[in-house]
Amino acid sequence: MTRTRGAPDRAPRRDRLAVMRASLRGLSEPATAGLDVDDPQTTELRRAIIREKPFLNALYREWYSLIADEIPPGDGRILELGSGAGFLREIIPHLITSEVFPVSNADIVLDGCALPVPDASLHALVLIDVLHHIGAVRRFLSDASRALKPSGRLLMIEPWVTPWSRLIYGHFHHEPFRPEAEQWEFPSAGPLSSANGALPWILFERDRQVFESEYPSLRIVKRRLMIPFRYALSGGVSMRALVPAWSFRLFRGLETALDPIMSSIAMFALIVVEKRG
Q1: What 3-state DSSP class applies to 236?
Q2: Is 105 in contact with 59 (CB distance < 8 Å)?
Q3: CATH code of the domain covering residue 212
Q4: Distance CA 92, CA 84 (A)
Q5: Number of structural domains, the chain?
Q6: How many other CB atoms sit within 10 Å of the CB of residue 38?
Q7: Which of 14, 95, 139, 242 has the smallest CB count inside 10 Å?
Q8: How far apart are CA 223 and CA 269, in angstroms?
Q9: What is the pLDDT of residue 13?
Q10: Residues of the chain with pLDDT under 50
């Protein structure tokens, strides 16, 4: 077959990606390899992995500190959605934990789109790697606005879209990642298998004006882009760690130095949304 002059030959690039994917499959975390992500037992195993992998554990503790720092002053109920694999309550002792199915680490089982709390009763609502799994996101945002007190906060750490993250999430991550999706909503095949990793960026960056128009009671007060390398290097919950635990501070320092170009390389964002008083 003759290639059109000037057109890039994409075959070698596809071949290189295929080889890299095959190599990464060989690094899969044995405890959860091949398991159904919608099975509660997989979430229990993932919690053990997060606790036992020092590099990943240190990253979660850093995330938890960032969340704790953004909780508004005063007392009140703080509810976390999707608590099953985490340990945020070690940082925020009075936290109410929840999950979409019964697991040992959740106080209550609930539907995030129909929160079982009175109006204006939550001081903060926390989601870590959860929002991008909520297909009926307009229902969630409406109910979150209802449940939060004036000046209460929706606190999230979620995947983000940058040129670097498009490469990594688009080619090497098991979850769907669709920055081009026209609609916010997506069909639900399962509580964890359904996802669009680009959804937080779509809501709070690409379609920010639409978000602000539809939810005037909510305002975005912070979007901190971060973590271009460390989560991938940790292996997350599905792969073995790619670097030793002692290198955590080294890579944190590198990421700090790269902060001026984070809009091009970040893979995650800390997002703070506040209910207007």
Answers
A1: coil
A2: no
A3: 3.40.50.150
A4: 15
A5: 1
A6: 15
A7: 14
A8: 6
A9: 58
A10: 1-5, 7, 23
Structure tokens belonging to residue 233: 């290097």
Helix%, strand%, coil% for the chain, nearest 5: 40, 20, 40
The vertex-194 CA angle with 189 and 200, nearest 5°, equals 150
Residue 104 lies in a domain: yes
CA 223/CA 182 separation, integer angstroms: 22
Q: Is residue 211 part of a domain?
A: yes
Range list of β-strands (E), the chain: 77-81, 96-99, 108-109, 122-128, 148-159, 218-226, 268-275
**Which residue is listed with tokens 């989601």?**
127
Per-residue pLDDT of 120-144, as tens digits, reads 999 999 999 999 999 999 999 999 9
Structure tokens at 168: 């990594």
The answer as to whether 103 is a domain residue is yes
Closest CA to 194 of 211, 179, 174, 208: 174
Q: So what's the pLDDT on residue 105?
A: 94
51, 87, 134, 155 from 63: Cα distances, Å: 14, 11, 21, 11
Which residue range is the domain that position 242 belongs to?
A: 33-275
Q: Is the dihedral of CA 176, 244, 60, 40 positive or negative?
A: positive
